Description:
This protein is of the alpha+beta class. Helix content is 26%, strand content 22%. It has one domain (4-162): Vaccinia Virus protein VP39 (Rossmann fold), CATH 3.40.50.
Amino acid sequence: MNNILEIKNYLKDVDNNPFFFIGDASETLRQIPDSCVDCCITSPPYWGQRSYENGGIGLESNAIDFVENLLKITQEIKRVLKPTGSFWLNLGDTYQNKSLVGIPWRTALKMTDEQGWTLRNSIIWNKHKGGMDSANDRLRNVHENIFHFVKSSKGYYYNDDAIRSNPRQT
Length: 170
């Protein structure tokens, strides 16, 4: 796990290499100063799908508590993100009592409505190989949502030339 001294030393440097934070997000984010992160990319565990040795997010007894715990983390991410920064959130969904829970959109809507995030993009990650879904009464769940959030709809950094492709080469 990174420590506060390591983080502060990195922030003083002009090194453009990325700095990766490793550890429990709810603990690690508290060590980071306000408005100093350019980009945050995260993919929290699915709710109720994994069992981790040391506990963690995703083990809540219900989906509402899971979303609320995610929101505590996204609020901290908003605090540490620069005004020009971006937050990319990859969330998968799951079923409960044969009904799709809708966790990605429940989370995204609460982030915009309650925390004031601006949702710039909703991307569907089409996973060509489905997960371990053995249901025989519905289609397999073979996609995940990736959301692009910013703190403000104006002034955030976005370089569309970086992702542009030449149609003749694709």
